[in-house]
Amino acid sequence: MTATQPTSSTQPTTRTQPMGRTCPFSPPEGYRTLREEDPVTQVTFPNGTKGWLVSRYAEARAVLADPRFGAAPQQTPLPGMFLTMDPPEHTRFRRLLTGQFTVRRMQKLAPAIEQIVAERLEAMAAAGGPVDLVQAFALPVPSLVICELLGVPYADREEFQGNSTRMLRLDASREEVEQAQMAMYQHIQQLVLAKRARPTDDILSGLVQSGQLTDEEVAGVGVLLLIAGHETTANMIALGTLSLLANPGQPAALRSDPAFMDGAVEELLRYLTIVQYGLRRVAREDVELGGQRIEAGSTVTVSLSSGNRDATQFSGDPDTLDVRRPYSPHLAFGHGVHQCIGQQLARVEMKIALSALFERFPTLRPTVPVDQVPMREDMFVYGVHELPVTW
């Protein structure tokens, strides 16, 4: 890996990881200084541990693509949780799923997603405003879609949504996370056993019938896909809606020319970057990065949100939401072998949901000021806990 500056001969200063937002749509302000002055820096994390923080786009992308940085393992990993695995074991799972989430297959899903979106919007209209957009629209849409894809009954939503929320709370104890994870795993495991007896046309049945995974591994994959498939997209739809409403010229631009929507989705993904505290990696060997020597075994956190505000990568003012911004590859879905496998599904869902929402309710507006909307700063996946709107 090529260093971006001469290797320092002095002990680097240990900083604290920037915390606390001054704008609900932007990462903590301290990242701006780090990007410009110290993009690879030693930090003390909120839990008191020490490691490295990468805040600039080029170095962030480099770490995520470099096999010398491995995935950080969980304390008690479930079978099949390939997100915390490295090749070749990671490759074994990823290869089985790649065909399930291709661009072509996700585009074929569009009519079904459109139907789900239309039904939720009609229910909103019938109920009348104000409503909580999270519960009425942003959460049900991706939950229904991922349940249909995996073969999980939507009637189980309260159980899996509750457990996934407990798993993603930043203040949750290890015991609480493990209990919620195990409850979800055992539930999916029962579904896997049922699908082995009576397979249907869904991803879990397909994985069972492939004969390449144990039932325990299929259940672990199911937990991972179920959490990622509804939590991330739900929060992007809700937070994306709020950020558009907070910038009045942006929804108007989308209504004037629907062709902007593809670019708008990419811009919202870049601008909001809801994996708010970054991705953890572990150095498998000594690595030089950004002029610093990172020793084997060191924890490295890559700030996706900071990298996506790097002015050297994104034209214009990257701290401004601009649905007309020319596309440049962003890090919202990560990068490298662990890049989000469901990114094409998320794009299709966001495009359909946001287009239909603003078309159905052109006068959509929040019922409270932006600074009174409860934000998910207490969660690994950022967003809003609720978003009261009317029209």
Q: What's this, in brief?
A:
It contains 15 helices and eleven strands. The chain has about 400 residues and is an alpha+beta fold. The strands form three sheets. The protein has a six-stranded mixed β-sheet, covered by helices on one side.
Notes on the structure:
This protein has one domain (14-390): Cytochrome p450 (Orthogonal Bundle), CATH 1.10.630. It is globular, with a radius of gyration of 21 Å. Helix 8 (157-168) runs antiparallel to helix 9. Strands 1-2-3-9-6-4 form a 6-stranded mixed β-sheet, covered by helices on one side. The relative contact order is 0.18. A hairpin with a 5-residue loop joins strand 2 (40-44) and strand 3. By secondary structure, the protein is of the alpha+beta class. Helices cover 47% and strands 10% of the residues.
Keywords:
single chain; 391 residues; alpha+beta; Cytochrome p450; 6-stranded mixed beta sheet; disordered N terminus
Quickly count the domains: 1
Radius of gyration: 21 Å
Assign a percent range to the helix content: 40-55%
The level-1 CATH class: Mainly Alpha
Low-confidence stretches: 1-9
Which structural class best describes the helix and strand composition?
A: alpha+beta
Mean pLDDT: 92
Q: Give the beta-strand count.
A: 11
How far is it from the N-terminal to the C-terminal residue, by CA? 53 Å
CATH topology: Cytochrome p450
